[in-house]
Queue: 2 jobs
Job 1
Amino acid sequence: MAVDVDELQVLREQHGGWLDANPFYLVIVLEDGRNVEQDLGERGWIAKLSDAGFMRLPGTWYLVRKAGGVIVMMMLVHEGEQPYYVARHVGVIGVSGSEGVETIIYGIGKKRLDGHVDRMWIMSNGCYLTGDDGEFAAIRLLKQGILPSW
């Protein structure tokens, strides 16, 4: 797929130098000292980092807030583990004339060698959550009216 340089420039101008409105970027620091800052709006970034050897080697993954460069979560990755990043769109459908609401929850995690999966989530109200309940918690907070959209 060819990259349209003009389109990328427009996106960066619209999003403060980034390619999309995602409030986070990813930093991966490998044990061998190599590191990368990744704009999560870049098409094909997973394949690019996989080809460069960043996806399955020991190191540390950081999810960093674009505004201010604050690290909001980190995940240690050990030999053989499979780390990942995820953005989930979560919403409640409006019924009987009411409006639906939607938000995005962001997370990082990993699959350990024993098959266990670690997950960490951050929501738009700043709430952090670990485990498998990210979507359920976001829906509950949306219904309670205390989880704004990004």
Job 2
Amino acid sequence: MSLFLSLCMVLASAVSAIADTRFDTQIEKVRQLRRDRNFSRGLTLVNQVLKEYPDSAIAVGDRGGIYFDSGQYEAAIKDYNVAFKFEPTDWESLKRRAQCFERLHKYKEAIADYNSLIRLVPNDGNAYFERAAVYELAGDKDAAKADKQLAAQHGCPDGCLPMLDQARQMYYSGLFQAASRALSAMEQRGCYLADLYSIRGRCRLAEDKFDYAAADFTLAMQIHPHDLSLYILRARAYLNMEKYDAALADCTKVIDKYPRYSMTRLIKPDGRPKKINVLLEAYRERVEAYRALGRFDKALEDCTASLREWPERVETLEQHADLEKRLKRPQLAAADYLRATKLEPTDTDAWFGLAQAYGDMKQYDSAVSVCSKYLSAFPNDDDGYVLRADLYMQMGNTAKAIEDYSRGVTLARNNASPALRKRATAYLKIGDKTRATADMKESERLDLDRPSAPSAVAPENSRKKPAAHASN
């Protein structure tokens, strides 16, 4: 009991000072600084990341991007060489290295890189367009003219790329509908680039237009078949369309392809290079597909494989714990949740899940203790009160259960139907039929007014993240 309480005290004391230093968050900050053209701060931050993760190919590639954008082309080439060594089909690093050579007036090297790029992605009109520009700079006008014709034939006519950049900025700004319209207008003018379909697919995914998103990702794959992230995005669309077998197929393609990148195996697991990130995404989406199909044993296998690659990923630990619960192994679920709380003391789902697991183990005193500490940190979380009320009901303390159900009803407001039904059951247990009937009627009214149900791929135990209670 003392261990549980001490861990809960860590949660309560850490709520007002969340320090998320995980790799993904740091890299996203680096990319935002790059988009803001704040190269000095971006370079400082990415170098700090590389001190912590010295073998990370993705961080090296992002530093190369900052060097490129700030005109430090020799330094960028060195970083792209490293990234490309780790990922032989990394067309992005190859393209950037070619652009660096171009800006250094090393046209022979730039053309060689564009030749390699075109062999890798022969349907990418952008590659022909950019090679044409290098041929012009090198004085080979005939080759430049031929490449411009090939660029147009492969969906990259003159004026296409600036418009694509504008649409990309709309997407980054959250203007999904406007970006999608702009990209569709470009398509009507003969632009058929992989980036067009990829960005439009992401916009449509954000707008819940899952069938259109899946179609866009398919078109992008035809141009860039080596971009494994496109399979993950299409799998996500398929999951939301309840096409679970199709989602499984896409995720399996990524997972089966991963071992071929032998160089990636040399990177430390916590280095988190791009291929490991893609692999983890593939496992995560395939877990959701298996879970939707009720194949919890297969989902658990994937979670376990993912944890072998990245043992300190809290999200995966929580997935693993949820599956252990579904397989009626609450002790193992509790161990996962407890480990997650140690890794991320302010993760609300981990603490909530731990209380549930103790309840499933009939360790009600421990469950209530964890739940109470949780609620002291997050006093406006209706789910927390309903969970503690459920525990009180199991302990036979109906009065305290009704008190907590009532708090849950008040906080949930229009989403209070489940709590109302549970409070009705508690009222019936003490013989108060009048209040029980009133609760059931109110629950039925709220159910009639409730909007359509969320996507079937959302986990059954998913819930809103409560806001931390502000300390004085």
